[in-house]
Design brief:
seven-stranded parallel β-sheet; 11 helices; Rossmann fold
Amino acid sequence: MKIVIPGGSGQVGTVLARAFVADGHEVVEIGRSPRDVPWKTVRWDGKTLGDWADEIDGSDVVINLAGRNVNCRYNDENRRQMMDSRVDSTRVVGEAIANAANPPKVWLQASTATIYAHRFDAANDDVTGIIGGSEPDAPDKWRFSIDVAKAWEKAANDADTPRTRKVLMRSAMTMSPDRDGIFDVMHGLVRKGLGGTAASGKQYISWIHEQDFIRSVYWLIEHENLSGPINISSPNPLPNRDFMKIFREAAGVKIGLPAMEWQLAIGAFFMRTETELILKSRRVVPKLLTDSGFAFEFPDWEDAARDLMKQWE
């Protein structure tokens, strides 16, 4: 297959491209800056059509991952970039597919599990899950993240691509041992003794092991009956308290200092990020994937954490 990955320079794009190339597929990464990687890279600006669109014409799969990193302070400029980078890139990818003489069979469009409501009572699946934004206790910054996710998906849905199946990948955190990835950053905190319970510890963490993420993407490519919003996450999210306890055990760290909400706010300020990434309860499960027959290699965090630690070491 020829697989085109706009916005593929981040952790998730690298995980996918590496796996696709290893399996013998042709990969084209479209990004703002060329990289020294073992697959083709093409430059774009993320908002206007150009020569890069020629790569989409005749391809088999497009996986659009473009969007500014959300691990930042939500000031006005960063908010604008987070919104515009997602909406503009999705719109122009849709235009490239619509204009293609031989468009791809499937367009996998990045979205996020953050789109769901902050809740503890039940899990949000991709059939009955509650879209967030109207929770009475949700801070303004949380509602902004949901507005971004909604606009992101709307840009994909608005694209007129009748010959291309569309899948909106509502992904949880992809855990891989790559340096500077989510697992690596969390592991660094754990090793410093800072991997304790955050605030109440009741908020759920949704995640997926890199191997299951890769396998789920292949599954979505191969199963033509799957379209629209699809949750990509382990079927077993955990409360923060339990998740971090297992993380510490896998890392061989006995102590993890807990942090109150005000302490997290101070830490987030100095780390130039937001507490939403820690405090929002993301209890997400992949009903459509599992109902279609997909079986996880790492459904439980205990096994996933141990495997990731072995790879990291």
